[in-house]
């Protein structure tokens, strides 16, 4: 039997809380850095005016859908598969899964390009874009989605490394990328010397250059002897069982990811009923909610690796105990951010613009929804833990419940003569329902009882249980 790597042994035997914190610290840094990428870009685009900011707000839910699908959904499937393989001491499968992850990422990246390049204009118009804001949205969208493959492969490689319990390497690569973007993004947006001003498209091009450089760096590490799971191009053939191991978690996770972004996309469309300033205000305010995704992912990635490794080794109780410890950490962090934003909304909003309508709508959103961000953190951390467990039914149902409440409730609020504040109040209720649905199901035994997806996981766990 293959000996356990020290990183794998840490996930199985070390104290849970201190181990999660130690693993989460570099991962939180990487997620803050990755979130800073979007914030840096938004800051400079905001200098181009409200129409540019509104155009970016129209595209941003779709860009985040791609990033969350590649890093959180498919990335979760990759990390979960590798963690479970290492926990079960299947080292050769862990190596092979890295190449399989790249193949899947390439396929999804091409699909995003094929759909969004021709279909972007129709989509953004339906979300309320028109005139200059729609033109800005298309300029940004065409550049980003022409290079969608780079985003998908970068996040697949980072997920493969995190699945081994190594959070430091993706952190270093991503932080280095921020230092790259700080000068390159404004250089391409505003131009300098012989370099022409590309406007909002310059921000998109800078972003793609960041993903290109990062992909090369991550691939180089996975090819080195330092990686627990290594990228091999020879001696590895594609096998459906390994692809299925990634996809069965990744595809179901994608439903949850789509629901998160649809919820925000629907709210963007509802805010659009009150004009471009409301779109820009909601889009800028909700950036903070999007910022919580990578912050919670900072804890979620090591939790996913720990839960997946423990389940691969048959340690169910440790997997559940780690999950509830992670829930407490995520709630405290997300609620702290939400309360700060609710009390002091304008400093955040004024980073991106000073338009009166934008500031008013953004402040209204943060004061109404911010105090409920803790529930968003709970639902999100349980989503990552469920990826590690390979049981995704209840995170999907929780996200679907959030989408239904946000969309139907917001539509009814407007139909009954409600204001923008009523639309935002419905978003708060949707966050509470999202967390309660998932938490109550897992507490009731959804992972290891008769309820859960996929059911084949229960049979797998029975075989892994020590006699």
From TrEMBL:
The keyword Kinase does not apply. It comes from the Bacteria. It is a multi-pass membrane protein. This is MATE family efflux transporter. Keywords: Cell membrane, Membrane, Transmembrane, Transmembrane helix, Transport. Its main location: membrane. Pfam families: MatE (PF01554). The chain crosses the membrane at residues 20-40, 52-85, 97-125, 137-161, 173-192, 198-222, 246-271, 291-312, 324-344, 364-385, 392-414, 420-449. It is found in: Cell inner membrane.
């Amino acid at each position: 039997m293959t000996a356990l790597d020290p990183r794998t042994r840490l996930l199985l035997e070390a104290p849970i809380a201190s181990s999660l914190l130690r693993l989460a610290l570099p991962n939180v840094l990487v997620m803050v850095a990755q979130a800073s990428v979007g914030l840096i870009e938004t800051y400079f685009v905001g200098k181009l005016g409200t129409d540019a900011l509104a155009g970016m707000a129209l595209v941003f839910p779709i860009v985040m859908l791609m990033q969350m699908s590649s890093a959180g959904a498919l990335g979760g499937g990759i990390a979960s598969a590798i963690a479970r393989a290492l926990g079960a001491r299947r080292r050769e499968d862990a190596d092979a899964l890295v190449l399989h992850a790249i193949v899947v990422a390439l396929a999804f990246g091409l699909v995003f390009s094929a759909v969004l390049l021709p279909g972007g204009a129709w989509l953004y118009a339906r979300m309320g874009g028109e005139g200059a804001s729609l033109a800005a949205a298309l300029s940004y969208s065409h550049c980003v989605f022409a290079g969608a493959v780079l985003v998908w492969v970068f996040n697949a490689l980072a997920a493969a490394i995190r699945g081994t319990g190594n959070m430091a390497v993706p952190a270093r690569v991503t932080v280095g990328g921020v230092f790259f973007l700080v000068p390159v993004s404004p250089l391409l947006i505003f131009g300098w010397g012989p370099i022409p001003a590309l406007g909002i498209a310059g921000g998109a091009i800078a972003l793609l250059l960041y993903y290109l450089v990062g992909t090369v760096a991550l691939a180089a590490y996975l090819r080195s002897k330092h990686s627990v799971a290594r990228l091999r191009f020879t001696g590895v053939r594609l096998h459906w069982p390994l692809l299925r191991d990634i996809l069965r978690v990744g595809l179901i996770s994608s439903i949850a990811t789509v629901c998160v972004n649809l919820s925000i996309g629907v709210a963007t469309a509802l805010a659009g009923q009150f004009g471009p300033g409301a779109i820009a205000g909601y889009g800028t305010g909700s950036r903070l909610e999007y910022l919580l995704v990578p912050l919670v992912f900072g804890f979620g990635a090591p939790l996913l690796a720990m839960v997946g490794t423990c389940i691969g080794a048959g340690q169910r109780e440790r997997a559940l105990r780690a999950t509830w410890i992670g829930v407490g950490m995520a709630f405290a962090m997300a609620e702290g951010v939400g309360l700060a934003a609710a009390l002091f909304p304008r400093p955040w909003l004024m980073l991106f613009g000073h338009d009166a309508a934008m500031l008013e709508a953004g402040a209204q959103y943060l004061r109404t929804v911010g105090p409920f961000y803790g529930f968003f953190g709970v639902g999100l951390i349980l989503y990552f833990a469920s990826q590690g467990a390979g049981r995704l039914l209840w995170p999907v149902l929780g996200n679907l419940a959030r989408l239904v409440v946000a969309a139907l409730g917001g539509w009814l609020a407007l139909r009954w003569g409600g204001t923008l504040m009523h639309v935002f109040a419905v978003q708060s209720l949707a966050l509470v329902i999202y967390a309660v649905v998932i938490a109550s199901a897992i507490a009731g035994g959804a992972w290891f009882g008769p309820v859960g997806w996929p059911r084949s996981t229960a049979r797998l766990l029975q075989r892994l249980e020590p006699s």
